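hiii, so i know i said id send this last week but things got crazy w the move. better late than never?? heres the sequnce for the chain we talked about at the cafe, plus the structure i predicted for it. fair warning i was half asleep when i ran it
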Amino acid sequence: MSDKNISGHFLILDALRGVAALIVLLYHIGEAHAVDRFTQMFNHGYLAVDFFFILSGFVIGYAYDSRRQTLSVGRFCLKRLIRLQPMVVIGVLIGAIFFYAGGGDLVTSAPLSRVLLLTLLGLLMIPVPAALDVRGWGETYPLNGPQWSLFFEYIANLLYVLIFRYLPKAALIVLTAAAGIVTAVFLLTNPNGDIIGGWQLTPVQFSVGMIRLLYPFLAGLLLARLRPQIKIPLPFPLTAVLLSVLLLMPRIGGAENLFANALYEAVCILFVFPLIIVIGSSADGIGRFARRPAAFLGRISYPLYLIHYPFICIYYKYVKESGEATTAGAVGYAVLIVVGSIAAAALIERFYERPLRRLLTRKTAAGDRQSVSDC
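okay and structure toks below
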């Protein structure tokens, strides 16, 4: 079996998801010190979500398109629940525990009954309006903010199994192009000059989330169908560096030139992210020395994304109460948050997520030879 296909999945793409998850962690640390969207240190880290969506579309298409006429809706949904929900559960529980462990005004002003309700709703993936928020940020999932993108991931999965999997290539091309045009128009006319949004339960924010979801997910599906090939030397380090540069790029243009930043993000989402997926999926191997770190990044990518935010909220509290508004003053604590989040993700993946998914797969997928972890 080649390096390209290990347990049915692409090692380079898994590793790139880990790179993106690490940058999301850095982005959220930077938010504690940012005055506004123009002063964020790791400014375009939020584009990792758009990269996750295109990667998800590709993986779903690669894993399920060959069985799209035979796999039942219930069977597909069960597989996706087994793949996604265990980390949702642990992320919500960690968020609830850390909310009270963090202390402060937010905890003392939040009724226990509301936190328990938010915990239950979060476990069931039910979004909440701003009226139920306990942090003052109006998040759809106050106990674990990044869970909002999983809400849209579930929507994408339902759209795939009910509609997208039956579309012929020509229809998928047209739909992807239309979604791309909508994305470009939204970005280039957005008064904020960026694609930030989707994490609040309002009509406007929901529409932003859907715009962010549809083109990347459809583009990923289309690439899985067409399977274009671009082979380059050293595909993993080069794509990892390219993705990192794109996601760590400072704000383009500033407040006086919002169009420049919008154009940058449109190019990233519409063209460069698909190019990265094509290069990563075309690779014949990853190299002996890169295999282990790539596999590690792949394993921790999803757990890291789903559990890091409660750590970040503790960091926010530290910055606020200590007065360490500069990164220089808080660098030691920031490093501790990064290392602690990665270590926690690795432990949770090893001793909770992986064994639980294997157990659920054995119990529910007898006779199905494809592992849920493959998709």
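btw The beta strands are 5-6, 9-10. thought thatd interest u
miss u guys!!
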